[in-house]
Amino acid sequence: MRNEPATPVAVTLPATAGASAQARRIVGEAVATWGVSPDVAEDAALVVTELVSNAVDHATGPLELAVSRTAQGIRIEVSDRSPTMPEPRPVQVDSARGRGLIIVAALSREWGTSPTADGKTVWAELA
């Protein structure tokens, strides 16, 4: 990554099926501008897809996406209006779903959730 400061990106997304693709484009453009390595850019695209998909599936209302550069890498935050905190579940091997948070944990240096006044933020930091 380059050493100059980078402007964080924050947008509101609809809680619809197309939100994940829109989020991937936004994060892709941001990390490309910041000169992030292709490997980290690919991981960021997958992480934001999983975070936004979970929010679309389990929350209501518009979503807030924020992506920023940190001293250690990239931070992605997805906020929604559900107070229910996500929890990784055991994977059902015959199911095509249910692996999102496992993928986020595998690709992130750290991830977590923070309650907000009207819901929660799920965040992930990538090296």
TrEMBL record:
Keywords: Kinase, Serine/threonine-protein kinase, Transferase. GO terms for molecular function: protein serine/threonine kinase activity. Residues 13-124 form the Histidine kinase/HSP90-like ATPase domain. Pfam families: HATPase_c_2. The keyword Transport does not apply. It comes from the Bacteria. This is Histidine kinase-like protein.
